[in-house]
Design goal:
globular, alpha/beta, single chain, Rossmann fold, 13 helices, seven-stranded mixed sheet, 2 domains, 21 strands
C-alpha cells in the first residue's frame, strides 16, 4: 500500500502527520511513503531528512492524492487555495483518510457528506476510545496536553494584567483568577500551567472523579449542581446533558465566572457536539479585559459566541477560538502525533494492508464514512439524521 503525507494547509498549522522517524518505520513495515515537498518545514523537518528515511518526495499534491491508498493528515480536509480545489475533491473512492475530522461539528458536516459521496473510507482520530489498549494510538490525548499548556499561555498573552501576585514599591498586585471548565487531559494541563504562572485556579467538571483530580492540583472546585448519576456515562466519560441540566450547570457557574480573569473551556462529550456552557448573557457579566479560551471549538465550542478559527473581542472580553492550538507547538505536537498515527496504522494493518474489523471497539469509534455512507453516530445525531 502507498501512504501519502500532504502538507497541512490550514492557516497557522505547522504540524505534519509523519516525521522521518515514523516514515522509516512505515517503510520497514512494507509501505511505500509519498511526502509532499516542504510538508515538514513547519515542524522543522527537512525534505532531505524524509528522503533519507526512505520517502519519495512529491512536488504536486494532486499526484500524491491520486497515487496514495492511504492519506495521513493532521487536520480535517480544507480548500486548497493554491490548487483551487478542495482536498476532498482530490481524493478517490476506496482511499483511506486518517485524520482529525471532528465530524459532529456543524462546520464540517458538508465536508463529511462529500467524503461519503466520494466513497472515501474516513477514520477520525477524535473517535479513538480511551481504553488501555488504545493509549498509544490516542492522538486526542496527546494534542489535548499541548492545547492545555499552550491555551493558558495564549490567555496570559491576551490578559492586560499580571497572572501572579507581585509586590512593588506602590503596593501589591493581586494574582489573576482562572477557571477551567472540563478537567480532562487538556483541562488538567491548563490548571497545572495556570498555577505555575501564579494564578488562583478554580475548576468545574460534572464528573466527580475529574473534579477530584483537579483538586489534587490545588484548584478550588466549583459545584456544577449536576448529580453523578446524570453526569457520568459509559467508561467514566461525561454524558450529553439535557437543556434542563445545562441550565442548572450554567446557573451554578455564572457567579464564579463573573469574577474570573481567565475562563478555559474544555468540556467535551465523546463524538458529540460540545455543550454550550457560556451563553452570551454570561459573557456579558464578565470583567472587561478578561479572556475565554475555547479549545472545544473543534466540536462546536463551550461558548455560544466563540468565532471558530479566530480571536475576537466581544463585550470587552477576548475570546480565543483558534482551532489548532497544538499547531502552535509544531515540533513537540508533531512528534507526539506522528507516533500516535503510526501506531494506529500498525494496529489496523494485517498482511501489509489496512483491514478493518468492524466489531473492534477502536474501529467502531473512529469509523466516519464507508461504502458511500456516513456511519459516525455523533455526526448523524448532530446532522439530525
Amino acid at each position: 500500500m502507498i501512504i501519502g503525507i500532504p502538507k497541512e494547509i490550514m492557516h497557522g498549522e505547522g504540524r505534519v502527520s509523519a516525521i522521518p522517524e515514523t516514515v522509516a518505520k512505515l517503510k520497514a513495515d512494507g509501505f511505500e511513503v509519498l511526502v509532499e515537498n516542504s510538508a515538514g518545514e513547519g515542524a522543522f523537518f527537512s525534505d532531505e531528512e524524509y528522503a533519507a528515511a526512505g520517502a519519495t518526495m512529491v512536488a504536486d499534491v494532486a499526484e500524491l492524492y491520486e497515487k496514495a491508498d492511504v492519506i495521513l493528515k493532521v487536520k480535517e480536509p480544507q480548500f486548497n487555495t493554491a490548487k483551487g480545489v478542495h482536498e476532498v475533491d482530490m481524493m478517490h473512492a476506496g482511499q483511506y483518510l486518517i485524520t482529525f475530522i471532528h465530524p459532529a461539528s456543524p462546520v464540517n458536516h458538508e465536508m463529511v457528506k462529500n467524503l461519503a459521496a466520494k466513497g472515501v473510507i474516513a477514520l477520525t482520530l477524535d473517535g479513538v476510545p480511551r481504553i488501555s489498549r488504545a493509549q498509544n494510538l490516542d492522538a486526542l490525548t496527546s494534542m489535548s496536553t499541548c492545547a492545555g499548556y499552550k491555551g493558558i499561555l495564549m490567555a496570559a498573552n491576551d490578559l492586560a494584567k499580571f497572572m501572579p501576585q507581585l509586590f512593588c514599591a506602590v503596593g501589591m498586585v493581586k494574582p489573576c483568577n482562572a477557571l477551567v471548565i472540563g478537567t480532562g487531559v487538556a483541562g488538567l494541563q491548563a490548571l497545572a500551567t495556570a498555577k505555575r504562572l501564579g494564578a488562583v485556579t478554580y475548576a468545574a467538571d460534572i464528573r466527580p472523579a475529574a473534579a477530584e483530580q483537579a483538586m489534587s492540583l490545588g484548584a478550588k472546585i466549583v459545584d456544577t449542581g449536576v448529580p453523578a448519576e446524570v453526569a457520568v456515562g459509559e467508561g467514566g466519560y461525561a454524558n450529553a446533558l439535557s437543556e434542563e441540566w445545562l441550565k442548572i450547570e450554567r446557573d451554578a457557574l455564572k457567579d464564579t465566572i463573573k469574577d474570573m480573569d481567565i475562563v478555559f473551556c474544555s468540556a467535551l462529550v465523546p463524538s458529540k457536539l460540545a455543550p454550550i456552557i457560556l451563553t452570551e448573557e454570561i459573557v456579558k457579566t464578565m470583567k472587561p479585559g478578561s479572556v475565554i479560551v475555547d479549545i472545544s471549538i473543534d466540536q462546536g465550542g463551550n461558548c455560544a459566541i466563540t468565532t471558530p478559527g479566530e480571536t475576537a473581542i466581544k463585550h470587552k472580553v477576548t475570546i480565543e477560538g483558534i482551532k489548532n492550538i497544538p499547531g502552535l507547538l509544531p515540533t513537540s505536537s508533531t512528534w507526539m502525533f506522528s507516533h500516535n498515527i503510526y501506531n494506529l496504522v500498525k494496529y489496523l494493518t494485517k498482511d501489509g494492508a489496512i483491514s478493518l474489523d468492524m466489531s473492534d471497539e477502536i474501529v467502531k469509534g473512529i469509523m466516519t464514512t464507508i461504502d458511500g455512507k456516513i456511519v459516525h453516530k455523533g455526526a448523524l445525531e448532530a446532522m439530525g439524521a
